[in-house]
Amino acid sequence: MRRLAEMHGGSVTVESEVGKGSRFTIALAYRAAPDEGAIGGEEPYADLAKGEPALAARPLRGRILLAEDNETNSDVLCDYLDARGYIVVVARDGHEALALVEDFQPQLILMDIQMPYMNGLEAIRHLRAQPPYADIPIIALTALAMPGDEERCLAAGATLYLTKPVSLKGLVETIQHLLEQSC
Ligand code: MN
């Protein structure tokens, strides 16, 4: 998490108390979202190339855990969400996602389904089996949409299912809607 924050020009401080867990303070520097050409061949975000004006103000809008094994995809999405006021922490597989959920206490999770070691479906099932995470909004994202994927994701406990390419603007609207519903 620290490495990620520093990559974004910010910092992470941790205060731990025995028996009470850890408090993470994450400071992120403002950076405008990339407007075009920032991603490679896969183009997972449909509207990235259209560009959007940089946002001047950046009120904090929520903590999001992004579980995504593709670094290019996660960098793009992370920058986009960061510029819109979300605090984003990235996990590279399901195991990392489960560990970070405990440490970071996200308010919403974006879960890529195809990941190594533990895929998104397994990670969602593990989370839903734990009472503190039974109701946290989880958006499942999948690149290779197959028949039955949506049903599998929803059956595993995903709140919503989206296929890549994802509209970044639409994704932010969906995230904001879910965050407002859940608080
Ligand atoms: Mn993946």
Question: What do these coordinates show?
Answer:
- There is one protein chain.
- By secondary structure, the chain is an alpha/beta fold.
- Helices cover 34% and strands 22% of the residues.
- The strands form 2 sheets. A 5-stranded parallel β-sheet has the order 4-3-5-6-7, sandwiched between helices. A two-stranded antiparallel sheet has the order 1-2.
- Helix 5 links the parallel strand 6 (138-142) and strand 7.
- The structure holds manganese (II) ion.
- Residues 69-70, 112, 114-115 line the site of manganese (II) ion.
Topology:
Blueprint: H1 2-7, E1 11-17, E2 21-27, E3 62-67, H2 71-83, E4 86-91, H3 94-104, E5 108-112, H4 120-128, E6 138-142, H5 149-156, E7 160-163, H6 168-182
Parallel strand pairs: 3-4, 3-5, 5-6, 6-7
Antiparallel strand pairs: 1-2
The structure holds manganese (II) ion.
